[in-house]
Amino acid sequence: MANIPTPHNAAKEGEIAKTVLMPGDPLRAKFIADTFLTDVSCFNTVRNMLGFTGTYQGKRVSVMGGGMGMPSVGIYTYELFHFYDVDNIIRIGSAGGIADNVQVRDIVIGMGACTDSNYASQYCLPGTFAPIASYGLLSRAVKEAERLKYPVKVGNILSSDVFYGDDGDALAKWKKMGVLAVEMEAAALYMNAARAGKNALCMLTISDCPFTGESLSAEDRQTSFTQMMEIALSLA
């Protein structure tokens, strides 16, 4: 342990579990803590990026918001891995479905995360890094979904740096390559985990489909993705 509390996280040593669930929205973190966890304590309110630790089916687990975009999730996950000795971070987020067979409320698990970001440039690698999930978490998540009879789709996702992009054809080009959905954080999470020698997984519930215009409300995104939450909690 070193450098804690951090400028972004008020938690003290031992207040965060080895496995952290990370929605983007801190209010979704609070919803998970209120709905699924017992013996809950709040370890962070800095910048209103709420974090909680509690117990789920006898296992200690934490949940904390990660914000929007790779710079934000990059900061929080780096600190969790390096300063708080967290072993597993499971992103549970929302995404836009771009493949034809992906519909609103479907659960997508990101086996790999394509990106238009230059996040990997910091590592000064002699080539292109492919951000991927940790197989152990991925395999367990698929098995748990099967046990719960919650259908999931597993494949490539896109982590984009832009929400309002200027290239109107960008998503269609990624769709041609078999990408299932677009979000904004997984690639940075996967790279941080790889660099730290830790484990990461991104699970997504489809909140909208850009090609059809179908979309869920902000409240639905905050409180209704319970199947994904249950799968993730079981991995703790």
From TrEMBL:
Annotated positions binding phosphate: G24, R28, R47, R91, I92, G93, S94
Q: What is its EC number?
A: 2.4.2.1
Residues bound to a purine D-ribonucleoside are H8, E183, M184, E185, S207, D208
The record's listing under HAMAP family reads: Pur_nucleosid_phosp
Site, Important for catalytic activity: residue positions: R221
The Swiss-Prot or TrEMBL record describes its family as follows:
Belongs to the PNP/UDP phosphorylase family.
What subunit structure does UniProt give? Homohexamer; trimer of homodimers.
Q: Which GO terms describe its cellular component?
A: cytosol
The protein's name is Purine nucleoside phosphorylase DeoD-type
Biological process terms from the Gene Ontology for this record are:
purine nucleoside metabolic process; uridine catabolic process
Q: Which UniProt keywords apply?
A: Glycosyltransferase, Transferase
> Which segments constitute the Nucleoside phosphorylase domain?
19-229
What does the UniProt function comment say about this protein? Answer: Catalyzes the reversible phosphorolytic breakdown of the N-glycosidic bond in the beta-(deoxy)ribonucleoside molecules, with the formation of the corresponding free purine bases and pentose-1-phosphate.
Q: Which reaction does it catalyse?
A: a purine D-ribonucleoside + phosphate = a purine nucleobase + alpha-D-ribose 1-phosphate; uridine + phosphate = alpha-D-ribose 1-phosphate + uracil; a purine 2'-deoxy-D-ribonucleoside + phosphate = a purine nucleobase + 2-deoxy-alpha-D-ribose 1-phosphate
InterPro entries tied to this protein? DeoD-type, Nucleoside_phosphorylase_CS, Nucleoside_phosphorylase_d, Nucleoside_phosphorylase_sf
